[in-house]
Amino acid sequence: MKILSISEQPSWCLPFLNAGKGPGGFYRETLPVQTGLVDRLPEGLDALIATADLQGRETFESACGGPLLLLGEVLPQILVDEILPSLGIEAQRAGVVLAGDLYTVPALDKRGGSGDVTPVWQAFGREFQWVTGVAGNHDTFGNLDRPASRMGKNIHYLDGEEVELSGLRIAGISGIVGNPRRRQRKTDQQFVASLEKCIHDDLDILVMHDGPGIPEQGLKGSALIRMTVDALPPKLIIRGHAHWDTARATLPGGTDVLNVDGRVVILQANGKK
Ligand SMILES: [Fe+2]
Known about the structure:
- It is a single chain.
- The chain is of the alpha/beta class.
- About 45% of the residues are buried.
- α4 runs parallel beside α5.
- It has helices at about 60-65, 70-85, 120-125, 190-200, 225-230; strands at about 5, 10-20, 25-40, 45-50, 95-100, 115, 130-135, 140, 155, 160-165, 170-175, 175, 185, 205-210, 235-240, 250, 255-260, 265-270.
- Fe (ii) ion binds near residues 101, 137, 209 and 241.
């Protein structure tokens, strides 16, 4: 599966509330939804949907007076009701990749809060054929760093593991490089060891929250991950954590990097609509 193109302009912009600094500091923002083409998708799959860094909550209009749900809790239904039909995509024929950081505090008064993202994973799991991905540095599952048990029969959390879904071999590494005494961090050595364990010739997608930087193109990311994947290039990395103006870049070794920080990308096979 090779990415051929990603639309530069979003096809949809979904309103949500972003946390501000202090009480009442929240503000309205939009989540861009972009479409893209890959050379082929496996039999049984109409689309692959990837997203990360959904650090916001639904709008007051959408909550209808109830508590504000996480953006990622309401996004699956919005995709199913308002977006996928116009692309000819059936939700049960779509797989979802979540690349982490899906939480925002309920009062929207603090940026970068950490909390339980299990309801987000489960909301995607209810609508789509399968869901896989990794934790971001702000994600917990209950109060744990990784789910204590399976979040659903079609939900596959990855941290140093690989899963085969619709014939796609997908591996994932949760968290970021940092001080392992802090939540969702791995030392340099641990992260490199996990990359070396996960990457092999038959791997289709490597999902990470952090990912390689491409400083020569002004794109932020980890120098350590870059050095490792330059030596051991996977075919496709799906990542979040650092915002890029562009959704896609290619490393010199040929690795395609899809950055879905604060955006949704819907990939369909070329020639299918
Ligand atoms: Fe992050």
